[in-house]
Amino acid sequence: MEQQKRYGHFDDAHREYVITDPKTPWPWINYLGNEDFFSLISNTAGGYSFYKDAKFRRITRYRYNNVPMDNGGRYFYIKEGDTAWSPGWKPCKTPLDFYECRHGMGYTRITGRKNQVEASVLFFVPLKTWAEVQKLTLTNQSQEVKTLKLFSFEEWCLWNAATDMENFQRNFSTGEVEIEGSTIYHKTEYRERRNHYAFYHVNTEIQGFDTDRESFVGLYNEFSNPDAVVEGLPRNSHAHGWSPIASHYIEVTLQTGESRDFVFLLGYVENEQDKKFSAPKVINKEKAHALIARFDTTEKVDKAFAELNAYWDALLNIYKVKTGNPKLDRMVNIWNQYQCMVTFNFSRSASFFESGIGRGMGFRDSNQDLVGFVHQIPSRARQRIIDIASTQFPDGGCYHQYQPLTKRGNNDIGGGFNDDPCWLIFGTVAYIKETGDFTILDEMVPFDNQPGSEVTLFEHLKVSLDHVINNLGPHLLPLIGRADWNDCLNLNCFSWDPNESFQTTENVSEGTKAESLMIAGLFVVTGKEYVALCNKIAKHEEGQRMQRAVDAMIEAVKKHGWDGEWYLRAYDFYGRKIGSNECEEGKIFIESQGWCTMAEIGADEGMVAKSLDSCKKYLECEHGMVLNNPAFTKYIYEYGEISSYPEGYKENAGIFCHNNPWVIIGECMAGRGNDAWSHYAKILPSYVEEKYQTLHKVEPYVNCQMVAGKDAFRPGEGKNSWLTGTAAWMWYTVSEFILGIKPDYDGIRIDPCLPETAGDYTVSRKFRDAEYDITIRPNGSQKGVKQIVLDGSPVEGDVIPYAAGKHTVEVTM
Ligand code: BGC
Ligand code: NOJ
């Protein structure tokens, strides 16, 4: 491997990734905000903000897939003499004397220096605040007095991010603003049905402003050279229609060594219907004033920033490992957990690969995401479970997605993905094990959000599994429906029409024989969990009923789902095998290997070990395990989207990082620690970071959904970073199966599975009202706990029984 250029490095002490060259191979982004107000921010300050919903409540505008890349953001222009520059390099792109971007936990700090002036901007969304703070510090590091002109810039989105990009016959006439002192208000559509507005403020007097894009930029200029900046003069423009923006103009004189802070605030406000206006046509600004007052000094901003850091201290203190391997520790203690929070918040909606317009919250996605997050803030996971379950149908089927703003099922995509229901059990069980809160099962939850349809959450779990049982195919395996986890295995789609979406088209399903081994494995895993839950809450009969269904499924898999060396993937519409040695291409698939080994189906008959070996033999490559092998080289009408992708990409034999952990867990269950670890390390970002800064392209501090597989043109190239179920699965895998700290109903189960080279390590784990300091001594063993000593006394079995307070645990393997 040739020596590659480096664009950055980890700074673990500050929990930051430090980018030292703005021209990263792809924008490397971060997320700001925790609950309602969110921002995406790239290493050059590109990106946008929204309130709750990236589609319906978009605050600032962004241009996707643009030339140049990453256009639109919160931009500062600093003008000294004839030179204009930006601290984040873009948009001016004037070469800087120094550049650095530090992405941290919920904040980003971008610093640029030019001609001995330093501009450092700290961007963050304070806790419980509907605003993004941008604290700009200008420092004169020279021996002379500096006279600078400072322009800020934000471009408003006309709220609905979809129509904003297409309905110009209307849009170009609706834009409205108000200007009051140093605050620019965006109030498009406020006169009619909206009761929300946004504002952009700076805590100092301004010498001018602009609110109309064309006046500021000039029709044929670009963000890199706006008219106003080139001439060094604001236009004081007042937008009427077209594209409203917000730009402050500030004249700054700095003495030698002098430093000055400017606090910019991008805020969002909602007013009650009867308090919308303070005078005819004038918006009621009371709440904006109050919000501004909370952040109008450096001290207040610094305090809010300290609170954000303390919040992350507390979150990341819940699970902390010390292994002596910094690459592992930084992912477990910092970045993996951080990414889990982000995927919990965003599902698959808004990233630099997801426009924020297309997708809401996924039913299966959100259930998986919350498993990576539940230890951080269980109460939010609880609410999420209820929200998700509320979009289920009475027969157990569910809407595939819902919109976060309305929490309603999304009719554009509908339902029919037959794996979806099982995930509700996966999520709920994880919540109860973490918290011990069984009351969630008694929560009354509607179907399809219909008032009057409420049943207990437990009943939702029951109908979920019943949905599988009631939809079995000719081999008594689960019917796949529109697709299972693999959204691209569209076995009832049959499309020759390029205008049809693979995701929503089901041209033929009447009489289908299309069955899924992935759902079969998922059903066995979640079915067993359900049985254990039933026994726990003394619903023994129901538990026995489900155990019979699970046993029947296991038999069906053994009988009809085994290909000799691995598990089949599916049966197609006609009942022909998919993922079999008999197939020309796509002989083996990862999903069924993962789920059927996790379910330990046929372990005694040697199926599990053979399947895992086959993964190593046929799926593994330098960068991880591919989804299927060999890749499909042509479109197969009866398979759908999977065969639409060129070889090695996405669902057609890409390394779908999401499902590598399934096999890794399978390895752990089988006690094969060396293999589990070697698979894990291949997709662990901190390992990739070292080797592939340019090849990999995407952020080296988080997992991406897909890395191009061995059949691809450029194996190892990553795409779709950030918003992927990989985050939660990597967390679940390393925290519970590799390091072996598993929350359970009655306590914490200790069951590590490690490479034989692993040394002693400690985990400190907060769990309900307890705190455990656990030391594990593997002694060269890959699996198998010999002895657990809790506070000095040996424990029977492998579960540390829960008891509030501080405890010391010594584990010998
Ligand atoms: C992608 C899938 C995705 C689906 C739904 C497909 O084009 O390949 O990964 O889940 O779209 O958005
Ligand atoms: C991404 C989707 O978000 C997820 O739901 C799906 O399972 C995978 N792609 C695989 O197709």
Q: Which properties best describe this structure?
A:
28% helix; alpha+beta; globular; 44 strands; 813 residues; 6-stranded antiparallel β-sheet; 20 helices; binds 1-deoxynojirimycin; binds beta-D-glucopyranose
Present the secondary structure layout.
Elements lengths: L7 E4 L4 E4 L9 E4 L4 E6 L6 E3 L6 E3 L14 E6 L2 E3 L12 E7 L2 E8 L2 E8 L6 E10 L5 E14 L1 H4 L3 H4 L5 E4 L2 E4 L9 E7 L5 E5 H5 L9 H5 L12 E11 L4 E12 L6 E3 L2 E2 L2 H9 L3 H19 L2 E4 L3 H21 L14 E2 H11 L4 H12 L11 E2 L17 H16 L8 E2 L9 E2 H13 L45 E2 H20 L3 H21 L9 E2 L5 E2 L9 E2 H9 L8 H13 E2 L2 E2 L2 E2 L25 E2 L3 H10 L3 H10 L2 H7 L1 H4 L7 E4 L10 E4 L4 H13 L2 E4 L2 E4 L10 E7 L2 E8 L9 E4 L2 E3 L3 E3 L3 E8 L1
Parallel strand pairs: 40-44
Antiparallel strand pairs: 1-2, 2-9, 3-4, 4-5, 6-13, 7-8, 7-13, 9-10, 10-11, 11-12, 12-19, 13-18, 14-15, 15-16, 16-19, 17-18, 20-21, 22-39, 23-24, 25-26, 27-28, 28-29, 30-33, 31-32, 34-35, 35-36, 37-38, 38-43, 39-40, 41-42, 41-44
Bound molecules: beta-D-glucopyranose (BGC) and 1-deoxynojirimycin.
Summarize this entry quickly:
The protein has 813 residues and is an alpha+beta fold.
What does this structure look like?
With 813 residues, the protein is of the alpha+beta class. Helices cover 28% and strands 25% of the residues. The strands form twelve sheets. It has a ten-stranded antiparallel sheet with strand order 1-2-9-10-11-12-19-16-15-14, with helices on one face. Helix 14 runs antiparallel to helix 15 (607-619) and helix 16 (660-669) runs antiparallel to helix 17 (673-682). The relative contact order is 0.08. The chain binds beta-D-glucopyranose and 1-deoxynojirimycin (NOJ). 1-deoxynojirimycin (NOJ) is lined by residues 348, 362, 364-365, 485-488, 651. The site of 1-deoxynojirimycin has 9 residues, from helix 8.
